[in-house]
């Protein structure tokens, strides 16, 4: 008989959280701390969503999305998780760029970027200061028709090299493009520039393990392999969730699943206004990613001069289409030294590229396997430019594609960062459509990534708490910096 992953679950919870991405985990934890009974459901056998890891024979552990996040994560983890989690966040000090326009190494903060822009790129100091101040000042109330490209042209007209330096890492970090609203760029860029790029010491497995312990301490009922199939709505109000065929009643639902799946699949469009459905349908998904995971032989220590993150590109110019193309010219390498997991003797390299789902869908199994092999081969060939003997040092290598992300997280088309910016308004409007239904998860640039997801989880937990107590919801804007 199949194992019952819901064995012992209650028939009613104040809150059902669908999905254990960072937003789902954080919302569940905050609500349990506020005294609510919480059921957290994850369809996968592991928690974390995109913030996850996998193990392979030989003791290799690969992180999927532990590449870098802004300093704000320390404050958010201290406030909404534990001191131990917050204290394990450390800075990555050597971020490198290498492309036909420039090669440089930076601590990736405002002081160092200012110095490099003035000394290396010969931009007048006042212009750099004006740019940083304007980026910091961008907020939700600004004209959202101004694109990031237009914003750059105001300060650095014709300077494709400067724009590449300022934009390439943010495109990598959240898939945003020159065509996206400037506000979304300004907030994320300024968050990074405040103190640089940070990581979690001990790896994603340790982080999620610590979060799981904290959820247990706060009484969250956590269930893996628990697939939410449907949500029941009655008289405009959420009533129950159907999980692995069992119906569990609840006062509220927080969906951490993909925004569009939540609306169209879990609830069904018949429960929403026509105009809302039109708006939801128009929300664009974000692009997906490919990764190549490379483990060196145990005890083989990578030279730290490789840096922590390397934004590498052979494309002569910075272009969105080039970043997404199957003909890969841009790769971001994360170098993981033994210090990533103190006590370990492993060095890993993960190469990431933005990718379109459509380029990987619809292949036969043979074609798909061959294309994955090609991805590995071309990545190793590109990596040889930096580590010439890398092939002889490798013990294990594997690749993932947009289909892999779709499979493990159920994001439509494997979208790495959920939806584009317009998804945020739709996500926030859901409770006005269906009472007791909330969405907390990657929607566009600000409310995705590790920090965005954690903060969005807190915002929505506060909304839910207010709803269950009959109070007023909090605003998103207070978390956007
Ligand atoms: C390759 C890659 C690299 C990245 N690098 C970085 C980085 O360096 N820095 C950074 O800050 N961010 C990075 N990110 C983004 C970051 O990991 C995500 O934005 C963030 O983790 C998303 O959190 P989330 O709360 O939106 O949920 P998600 O991680 O999207 O998780 C949603 C969860 O819901 C579950 N679920 C869905 N449907 C159901 C259902 N019906 N029933 C039960 N469970 C369900 C899924 O299984 C999943 O666990 C990266 C992402 C990718 C893909």
Using the coordinates above, name the CATH class of the domain at 12-51 and 206-284 and 412-479: Alpha Beta
* Percent range of helical residues: 25-40%
Distinct small-molecule ligands in the complex = flavin-adenine dinucleotide
Distance between the termini: 50 Å
Shape label: globular
What CATH architecture of the domain at 12-51 and 206-284 and 412-479 would you give?
A: 3-Layer(bba) Sandwich
SS element count, helices: 17
Mean pLDDT: 93
Structural class: alpha/beta
Low-confidence stretches: 477-481
Q: How would you characterize the largest beta sheet?
A: 7 strands, mixed
Describe the structure.
The chain has 481 residues and is of the alpha/beta class. Among the domains are: 12-51 and 206-284 and 412-479, FAD/NAD(P)-binding domain (3-Layer(bba) Sandwich); 109-193, no CATH class. The protein has 17 helices and 18 strands. Strands 1, 2, 9, 10, 11, 12 and 18 form a 7-stranded mixed beta sheet that branches. A hairpin with a 3-residue loop joins strand 3 (53-56) and strand 4. The longest helix is centred in the last third of the chain and has 21 residues, at 449-469. The radius of gyration is 22 Å and the shape is globular. Mean pLDDT is 93; it is low at 477-481. Residues 18-24, 41-44, 49-51, 64-65, 67-69, 173, 227-228, 256-257, 289, 291, 352, 405, 409-411, 416-418, 441-442, 448-450, 453 line the site of flavin-adenine dinucleotide.
Helices and strands in order:
Layout: E1 12-18, H1 22-33, E2 38-41, E3 53-56, E4 60-63, H2 72-80, H3 83-87, E5 89-92, E6 95-98, E7 103-106, H4 110-119, H5 125-137, H6 148-155, H7 160-174, H8 182-195, E8 197-200, H9 203-217, E9 221-223, E10 228-234, E11 237-243, E12 246-255, H10 259-267, H11 274-282, E13 288-296, E14 309-313, H12 320-324, E15 330-336, E16 348-355, H13 365-383, H14 390-393, E17 394-400, H15 402-409, H16 423-433, E18 437-439, H17 449-469
Parallel strand pairs: 1-2, 1-12, 2-9, 6-14, 12-18
Antiparallel strand pairs: 3-4, 5-8, 6-7, 10-11, 11-12, 13-16, 13-17, 14-15, 15-16
């Amino acid at each position: 008989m199949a194992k019952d992953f819901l064995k012992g679950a209650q028939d009613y919870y104040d809150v059902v959280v669908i999905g254990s991405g960072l937003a789902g985990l954080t919302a569940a934890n905050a609500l349990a701390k506020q005294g609510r009974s919480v059921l957290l459901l994850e369809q996968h056998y592991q928690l974390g969503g995109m913030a996850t890891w996998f193990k392979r024979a030989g003791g290799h552990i690969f992180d999927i999305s532990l590449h870098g996040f802004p300093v704000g994560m320390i404050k958010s983890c201290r406030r909404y998780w534990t001191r131990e989690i917050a204290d394990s966040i450390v800075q990555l000090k050597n971020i490198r760029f290498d492309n036909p326009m420039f090669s440089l190494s930076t601590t990736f903060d405002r002081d160092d970027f200012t110095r490099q822009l003035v000394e290396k790129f010969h931009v007048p100091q006042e212009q750099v200061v004006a740019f940083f101040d304007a980026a910091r000042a961008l907020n939700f109330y600004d004209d959202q028709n101004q694109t990031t490209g237009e914003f750059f042209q105001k300060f650095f007209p014709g300077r494709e090299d400067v724009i590449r330096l300022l934009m390439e890492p943010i495109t990598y970090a959240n898939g945003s493009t020159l065509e996206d609203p400037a506000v979304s760029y300004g907030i994320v860029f300024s968050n990074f520039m405040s103190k640089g790029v940070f990581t979690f010491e001990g790896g994603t497995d340790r982080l999620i393990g610590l979060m799981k312990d904290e959820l247990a301490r706060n009484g969250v009922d956590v269930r893996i392999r628990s697939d939410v199939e449907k949500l029941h709505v009655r008289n405009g109000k959420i009533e129950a969730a159907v999980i692995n065929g069992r119906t569990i009643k609840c006062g509220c639902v927080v969906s951490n699943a993909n925004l569009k799946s939540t609306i169209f699949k879990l609830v069904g469009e018949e429960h929403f206004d026509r105009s809302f459905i039109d708006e939801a349908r128009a929300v664009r998904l974000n692009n997906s990613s490919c990764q190549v995971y490379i483990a060196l032989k145990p005890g083989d220590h990578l030279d730290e001069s490789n840096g922590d993150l390397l934004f590498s590109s052979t494309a002569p110019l910075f272009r969105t289409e080039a970043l997404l193309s199957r003909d890969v010219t841009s790769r971001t390498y994360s170098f993981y030294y033994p210090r990533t997991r103190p006590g370990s003797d492993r060095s890993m390299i993960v190469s990431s590229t933005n990718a379109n789902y459509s380029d990987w869908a619809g292949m036969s199994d043979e074609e798909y396997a061959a294309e994955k092999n090609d991805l590995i081969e071309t990545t190793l060939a590109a990596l040889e430019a930096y580590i010439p003997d890398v092939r002889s040092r490798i013990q294990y290598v594997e690749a993932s594609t947009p289909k892999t992300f779709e499979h493990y997280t159920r994001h439509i088309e494997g979208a790495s960062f959920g939806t584009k910016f317009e998804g945020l308004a739709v996500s926030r409007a859901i409770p006005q459509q269906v009472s007791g239904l909330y969405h907390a998860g990657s929607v566009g640039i600000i409310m995705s990534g590790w920090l965005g997801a954690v903060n969005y989880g807190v915002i929505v937990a506060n909304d839910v708490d207010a709803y269950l107590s009959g109070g007023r919801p909090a605003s998103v804007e207070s978390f956007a910096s």
